[in-house]
Amino acid sequence: MSTKIELKDIHWLIDMIQNIDVGLVVIDLEMNVQVWNGFMENHSGLLTAHVVDRKLNELFSEIPQDWLQQKLDTICVLKNKAFTTWEPAPLSF
Question: What is the topology classification, in CATH, of domain 2-78?
Fold first, then answer.
């Protein structure tokens, strides 16, 4: 019975991530996109299948490489997650 509850919880979380009314992008330390939710698909015009496992800075060259690398370096040093908003150019990313 606990397996059913856990599986139900996983499906609920996946559904929430895909349908939340904000863009959610998760990248790995090499800047490869790992998660691209439904909001991002709808507002960027890029399908998840075309984005996942591609480098974020190749998809969006307007994101400053130095800024993004500094964010990743901080994550590595602090061994922590980071959340950010891209306010300088909200329409491009």
Answer: Beta-Lactamase (3.30.450)
